[in-house]
Amino acid sequence: MPTSDAYEGIRYSDAEQTPDERILANLAGALDRSLPVPLGIQLRGLIEFGIALGELPTGQRLPSVRELAERAGIAHMTVATVYRELREAGLIEAKPGLGTYVGDGHSNDGLRSSAIRKIQRRIESLFNEAEQLGLPPSVVSSLVNARAARGPAPSRPLRLVMVGNFVETTQQYANRIQDYLAADDTIRVTTVDALHAGEVFPLPCDICVTLAHRRGEVEHLVPNGIPVVGLSFIPAEETRAQLAMIDPMARIGIVSIFPEFTALMKPGVLRFAPHVSDVEVRLITSPDLQDFLSQVDVAIYASGAEATVSQMLPPGRQAMEFRYVPDPHAIRATLLPVMERLRASNLSQEEVPS
Question: Closest by alpha carbon to 223, among 345, 352, 105?
Fold first, then answer.
C-alpha cells in the first residue's frame, strides 16, 4: 500500500463545519500545484486513499462536481472525469437527485447470488450423479433434508489470500491480520500487478483481503464465488514515533511511488512531525531524485521505495519508511464477520488443487 497517510493530516478542525463542508475543504485544500503531478491525478488519489484509510466511509456524500471545481479552482471537466473513473472502478456511485456517495465496491446481493448459483450447480451435479447411479430424485431429496436437519457441520480452518501492492509489505499486513485469525486459519499473499500479469490466483481460498480502494479492481481478478473484503489502514505506531522524534531543523525529503498519492505525503508527515518546516516531495521516477536526496537530512519513503532510496541516499543520512498497518477496528468490523458467516454457513470455497 502506498505510504502516504495523510488524509487525517489535511482535516480541518473547525467545529462549526458540517462533515460535508469539511470533506469539500479537505479535498480542495490538499491539491498542490507545486507538485509535478496533474491536479486530476492528485484528486483521484485523495479520494481513493481517503477510502483506503476509512476517512471516506461507505455512504459518505461527496461534493458535487460544481462545488469541488469552484472551491479547488480547477476545471469542471477535471472533477467530472475523476468522478467518472471512480464510478467505473466501483468506488463511488451517483444517486439521482441526491448526489455522489462513496460506494461499497461491490453488491451484497451480487455476492449472495453468486453463492446461490454455486450451490445450484452443485445440486444439479448431485442429481445428475444420482441418476447415473440409478437413484430416484426422492432419495436425493431425503438425504439433503436429513443433512439440513442436523444443522451446520463442524467448521474447518479458513484460507485467506491478501492482495496488495508489494509482496514484502503485503506479507507484513498479512502477519498483522494473522493475529486475529483462529489457530488453524491461514493467509497467503500476492499482488495486484502479479494477478494482472497472469499469475494464477492462489487456491484454495475462502476469502480474499485487499486494500479498501482496490477492492473493485481485485474482484475482477479472483475466481467467482470468493468474497473480497477491503480493509482500511492506519499509520504504524513505530512510524508515528519516528516522525515525532525528527530534529526540528532537519531538511525532510519525501519520496512517493504513486503519482496520485503525492498530494497526501507531505501533510501525512506533518501530521506527526508538525515541528518541522523544511519538507519537499519527489516521485521515485523524478530525474533529479539523486540530487534531491543528496540535499536532505532525513528521507521518508513510501513502502516499496526502500531499495532506490538506500542506493541514492548519501552515507550518514537518516531514512525511514512511512509504514501502514491494517486498522484493527476494520479487521473486527469488516473481516471477522465475513469469516464467521462462512464458518456458520459452510459455504466456503471447495478444495481446488494448488
Answer: 352
pTM over 0.85? The answer is no
Query: What gap in Å lies between CA 53 and CA 46, rounded to an integer?
Result: 10
**Measured distance CA(90)–CA(99) in Å, rounded:** 16
Its domain, for residue 25, covers 8-102
Q: Is residue 56 located within the same domain as residue 186?
A: no
Which 3 state secondary structure label does DSSP give 110? Answer: helix
187 and 332 fall within a common domain: yes
Close Cβ partners of 264 (under 8 Å, ≥ 6 residues apart)? 4, 5, 6, 7, 9, 10, 30, 45, 46, 49
Q: Is 87 exposed, middle or buried (0-12, 13-18, 19+ CB in 10 A)?
A: middle
Beta-carbon contacts of 63 under 8 Å, excluding residues fewer than 6 positions away, are 20, 23, 24, 27, 71, 100
User: What band does 148 get if pLDDT is binned at 50, 70 and 90?
Assistant: low
Residue 185 Ramachandran class (φ > 0 left, ψ -120 to 50 alpha, else beta): beta
Residue 10 has pLDDT above 70, yes or no: no
pLDDT at 53: 78
- For residue 250, give every residue at least 6 positions away whose Cβ sits within 8 Å of its Cβ, in sequence order, or none: 276, 278, 297, 298, 318
Tell me the sheet residues that pair with 223. none
Phi, psi at residue 100, to the nearest 5°? -110, 135
CA dihedral 117, 122, 125, 126 (to 10 degrees): -140
Q: Is 98 exposed, middle or buried (0-12, 13-18, 19+ CB in 10 A)?
A: exposed
Residue pointed to by grid coordinates 474482484: 219
Mind listing the pLDDT tens digit for each residue in 186-212? Answer: 999 999 999 999 999 999 999 999 999
> How many domains is the chain partitioned into structurally?
4
CA distance 212 to 49: 9
